[in-house]
Amino acid sequence: MPDANPLLFTPITVRGATARNRVVISPMCQYSAEDGIATEWHRVHLPNFARGGAGIVFTEATAVERIGRITHGDLGIWSDRHAEALRPVVAGIHGFGALAGLQLAHAGRKASTQRPWEGNSLLTDADAKRGDAPWQVVGPTTDPLQPSWPQVHALTVLEIKALCDAFAAGAQRALAAGFDIIEVHAAHGYLIHTFLSPLTNRRNDAYGGDRNGRMRFMLEIAEAVRREWPNDKPLFVRLSAIDNHPEGWQIEDSVVLAAELKARGVDVIAGLAADRSGRQHAVVAASAVARARFPGPLGGAHQT
Ligand SMILES: Cc1cc2nc3c(=O)[nH]c(=O)nc-3n(C[C@H](O)[C@H](O)[C@H](O)COP(=O)(O)O)c2cc1C
Q1: pTM across the whole model
Q2: 249: domain CATH number?
């Protein structure tokens, strides 16, 4: 006999936020913003998930600074004008009974690319001619994503500190726009993940080296965001829980990081494997972190 009232459809409370069920709409890039500003697309698309019954609806990766976008079409939250444009999106999600989550993000060295339907690769001269100019991307070191791609600007310590402030400012603006939940995007080879992974972080200063050094940027961001984000509002972090590479970030690293994040007021880890790994793997990775560090009614991790 199927369960008449499965756990999935029961409410869940994290801090002061109660979702009517545990269906979470994952952050999904729409490439439909204008200079990072939400458009009619977002005002229709996101509330529609709430109308369909989801408990929590997340925005796509929303960049904390202009150069943190993957493409020219990504959402951003680097000015008050950006927050203002998100207010009706939040109102629409609330109007249909769901909680609204915002994913704070920085694409790092995976930034400055074409929208998928324009090629999904580096921006070209032709893109620049129609107004989509490429920009200098940043990361822990100068190594590009692919050998043929332009060099990356290795962030200085001052620039790293400024980025922690940018994440904090993003949190302030998310609050002003009315969001209930923030998720920090630390997965998928974007900026924070490249600091965590020994495959991409070869710095020899305080933000590189051993695991503590590589975790420092993530932990300072978590502290900065939590300082701005009210105590009664949940904070999530999305991790690539494993790199799926023998010399990469391992599940044991994620278990340690999850404990450090929990100590800094992070409530939920959305644990995934890196892009090249399969779904089954992601679920195993997520539940290992959850069992170790986030026991509780949500299972501590969602597969989003
Ligand atoms: C069109 C699309 C856009 C996505 N954009 C984001 C994003 O902005 N941030 C993010 O963390 N994941 C993003 N993802 C990954 C999804 O959130 C999700 O983790 C992935 O699709 C795996 O879940 P699934 O197996 O249910 O598809 C995106 C996925 C898709 C299909």
Answers
A1: 0.93
A2: 3.20.20.70
